[in-house]
Amino acid sequence: MGRISTTLVAGFLCCLCLTATLEAQGEFSYEFEDVPENIQAETGTTVPFQVKLVLGSSGLDATGPQGWSLGVANNGVNITALTTAGSAAADVADGGLRNTGFEVFEIVDPDRNDGQQGLVQALVLSFVMPITLPPNTDQIIGFVDYEATVGAEASSATIQYQNGLVGSGQPVNNDVTFEGQTATPTLSAANINIEPPPPPETACDDGEDNDGDGAADCEDSDCADAASCAGGIDLKIGTPDDPDASQIVICASEGGGEALVTAYVGPNDPADPPANGAQGWSLGIEHNPAELTITNDTYPTTSGTVAGDVNDGGIRNTGFEKTEIVDPGRNDGRAGLVSAVVLSFTMPITLDPGRDQSILRARYVVADGAGGEGFSSEINFSNGLIGAGQPVDTVLTVQGQTLMPREISGITVVHSEDACAPPSAVFLRADANNDAKVDIADPIFTINWLIRNGPAPACAASADSNDDGKTDISDPLYTIAYRFMAGPVPAAPFPSCGEDSTPDGLACDNSSCP
């Protein structure tokens, strides 16, 4: 059988029209399926994809469309192949419905279409049998293979049903024939974004030139607004009254002596502080268990620091805190502590980015047999320590991003014989608040200092109520027991001022005694 032109088909479809004035029942639509919204690939890559042409109907009774014609224009992508095989429009031999009917399905010549690319289809399911598409369904009537070529810049493409495209015959309109009447369907269009992959994201803390512009980390202009580059944030271990202390000098002879340390978060450069403060952090702090022992009565703790709960004078509110001494048995013999803090899950609470702020306190005692001349032991931040959960890294969270501190510094505990010299000061034992008397205010003063970040005693020796050479929670309890529970009397100098008969190196910078 020779090829039948689209002109003949158009004439046949017109013959199916009982009258040009009759209105077809129901509604019809030309749609697309499987059009990609976005195509992203390396520049110069050709990406193939297949689109389904779909004829939809609704509001019909027992029969559906008998035939149709359509045109599809494409811009920004190219057609490589088309077929009805496998669709409802295919011949019965190819699994479709068409039998003794007619099909034209071809790519148009842009030279005959004012440069427009596209395709046309004209199809009659049968000339002799009452074959129609199933009514009130969406039926695939063709498959079209396209390809998109990715350029150096982002572009867009369109695929749309369009009237007037010219194939081998006359211009083709988008029409549907139903019960001998010509119906005008609604027409769809689809847009496709075509783009190369985004440039590699510039990491601002990995030491690499990620985007190949010759600059790494904070030297890269792309990092100008990164929280880690706006002055940077440091983590440091200092003393309760000096964030920048590098040493704690103690009397460590015969295994005695204690060191109270405080961890801080602060700006790397106070003159160029970060724009935003830390919302949370996790950290590990490690020490040598053969040289130091970390106490576990009230320490380690966030109480008395800025990271403490609002009820303890801190700023943490509806957040999270877990601080614990690690088990060396779970850490291959490593000793230390871990701490994780979220200042708030519901409120925009952050640390002040412009100054050093305390976030943790811990107390260390020199291990038995480790002290004496030449004693020196480091306390440092460390990754990978395991508490009750998983290994903990020392990182900060700023604006929802996990950031490495710009600088991390620890502290060294050292022995000095000068710290062991008897204090020359005259003081009154148990007079923690230095008001020349011993009453209920003194244990409260000590508790505020130890637990709630209150002021430190002017004379540490005075706060050592039980004369054990340390200042800890046992001292206010000792004073309370003496004052109100018939406990033992504090050792000399008490109840009047005097010198310490058992010198232990505790400082006494200022005393209420004459």
Protein traits:
8-stranded mixed sheet, Immunoglobulin-like, 3 domains, mainly beta, Type 1 dockerin domain
Task: Please tell me about this protein's structure.
With 514 residues, the protein is mainly beta. The chain has three domains: 6-195, Immunoglobulin-like (Sandwich), CATH 2.60.40.680; 230-420, Immunoglobulin-like (Sandwich), CATH 2.60.40.680; 422-514, Dockerin domain (Type 1 dockerin domain, Orthogonal Bundle). The chain has helices at 6-15, 441-452, 460-463, 474-484, and strands spanning 27-33, 38-40, 46-58, 67-75, 78-83, 102-107, 117-124, 138-149, 155-161, 165-166, 171-172, 175-178, 181-183, 186-187, 189-195, 233-238, 247-250, 258-267, 280-287, 292-294, 320-325, 335-342, 357-366, 376-381, 385-386, 391-392, 395-398, 401-403, 407-409, 411-415. The strands form six sheets. Strands 2, 4, 6, 7, 9, 12, 13 and 15 form an eight-stranded mixed β-sheet that branches. Helix 2 runs antiparallel to helix 4. The model is unreliable at 1-24 (pLDDT under 50).
